[in-house]
Each structure stands twice: as structure tokens, then as C-alpha cells.
């Protein structure tokens, strides 16, 4: 059995980018995150100790998004590292997508994103 904890379309204002204005005015970001884990024990015993709290995961993502970076790749790497430090023994796979909504590139575009997939 494969168990997945998902966070979809977490919206956060943050200050990432290579242009100086991005560090001043910021941008809106959308984050999707899937964690493959075994929460079969939690299905039986109703204990948070046997799964990963999606509230704690969302807070971890929020904390890392609050630290300005030039590149979304760097932010994503920090998020993955932090998740592995906290729950590495419980995580089989991390699938993270960070999208910058309305990026300042002068084109009519919905978003630009990076996606990081890590198998443990």
C-alpha cells in the first residue's frame, strides 16, 4: 500500500527573485507538496505519532518561504532538506512544486515553477 500526504495550492507571499524589485514588493507563490509515507499504523490506531502532521509540514514550508532567495531552486532545496531533517525516517518520496504566480517577465503567463522529486 502506498500512502501519500498532500498539500495543494498553499498560497504564500514571499520575496524571492533575481530582480531587486522582487525583494521589495514580493510575489504570490503556490506550493504543492506530496509526501509518500507509511501511515498504515495511524489508520489503525488514530495516533499522530504514526504519521506526519500536514499542519507541521505546511508550517515548515512557510518558514522556509519566509527566507528570501534569488532562486526557487534554492528555496526548494531548503524545504526538502528541512523536511528530511524532521521526518526523513518516515518519508519515502518528496514531490515539491513551487510556482511564482505572475512572474515579472513581461509576458502573459500564469506562473513559472520548479519541481523537485526526491526518493529516499
Give me some keywords for this one.
alpha+beta, 36% strand, 120 residues, elongated, 4 helices
Order of helices and strands: EHEHHHEE
Query: Helix tally?
Result: 4
General form: elongated
Structural class computed from helices and strand pairing: alpha+beta
Radius of gyration: 16 Å
Uncertain ranges: none
Strand order of the largest sheet: 1-2-3-4
Would you kindly provide a written description of the structure presented here, covering whatever features stand out?
With 120 residues, the chain is of the alpha+beta class. It is 32% helix and 36% strand. The chain contains four helices and four strands, in the order E-H-E-H-H-H-E-E. It has a four-stranded antiparallel beta sheet with strand order 1-2-3-4, with helices on one face. Helix 3 (54-65) runs antiparallel to helix 4 (72-87). The chain is elongated and about 50 Å long. The two termini are 17 Å apart. The mean pLDDT is 95.
Task: Describe the structure concisely for a colleague.
The protein is of the alpha+beta class and 120 residues long.
Detail the topology: elements first, then pairings.
Elements: E1 3-14, H1 20-24, E2 27-37, H2 40-45, H3 54-65, H4 72-87, E3 91-101, E4 111-119
Antiparallel strand pairs: 1-2, 2-3, 3-4
